[in-house]
Amino acid sequence: MRVRVIVVGDDPLARAGLAKVLMEMTELEVVAQIAADDSVTDAYRAYAPDAVLWDLGWSPESTDWRERLSDLVESGARVVTLAPEQSLTTGAWSAGARGILSREADPARIAAALQAVDQGLVAVDPALGGTFLPSRNQAIAYQVEELTKREREVLELLAEGLSNRSIAVRLEISEHTVKYHVNAILRKLGAQSRTEAVVRATRSGLILL
User: Which domains are assigned to the chain?
Assistant: First the structure.
């Protein structure tokens, strides 16, 4: 099932560009493009999307965007924000956004973040995370055997959707070795599939999308 999305932002050209890119992705459906003004919450209630993509722009025009974002979250919205720099991310997090990416994030990462927040997960670019990363009491705790450094690297690439062959190329190891690490990850996380392993790892705070 596709994730229904509203695109929010001050710049109409940027909104349209984001909407166009997202509409080309089979897992997403853009249902509306909305200005980042007082009408945001009403639009959310009218369209009832699964997730909201809020583009903060290079410099938010409104000084009360945090209040509007907070109101939107209180209405039940699951929001992914696109931020130009780390200085804006703490405000977005405290306002309730659970997806925080760079404005330069590629479409695949944006789509993954929207899907993650739709499932109640957190999707934060580690480079923007600062000190507000999700606490353990916000995650589902899994009693798992500790992953090795290499297994964590493989797990992070699994979260990006890479195949065993692509992971092997990225890490400069053999495909056979990748398969060995994947099997170890599945065993330690008690997962039956690569997707389930990523979901469990994300919920338990082992990785961030």
Answer: 3-133 (3.40.50.2300), 137-203 (1.10.10.10)
